[in-house]
Every structure is written in C-alpha cells, then in structure tokens.
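User: Please fill in residues for this 56-position structure.
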C-alpha cells in the first residue's frame, strides 16, 4: 500500500513552508514520512508545481 503526504501552501503564518519546518531532529515532512513508513510500503510527497526544494 502507498501513503501520500500532501505538501502545499506557503506557510505564511509559520514564516516558512510547513514541510521544511524543523520538527525534532528532522523536518516535519520527514517526520511524517518516517511515521507513515511503519504503516505503508512506500510514501510519496505530493507538492505544488511552484515548490522547488527537494525534500530528502
């Protein structure tokens, strides 16, 4: 089964894109992906077209 993380929005209230916010020792998006990999075989990020940074 495949999990999908929706990464969109500018995060204007947070001051940066929400998916690159630091969360613990990682980014919020990576934290979510690690948690989802406990349930799903693969996890993909679905991002807006304007988003240029690659999350690893």
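Assistant: Residues filled in for all 56 positions:
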């Amino acid at each position: 089964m495949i999990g999908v993380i929706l990464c969109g929005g500018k995060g204007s209230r947070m001051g940066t894109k929400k998916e690159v916010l630091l969360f613990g020792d990682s980014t919020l998006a990576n934290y979510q992906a690690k948690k989802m990999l406990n349930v799903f075989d693969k996890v993909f990020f679905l991002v807006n077209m304007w988003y240029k940074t690659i999350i690893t």
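For context: The chain has one helix and four strands.
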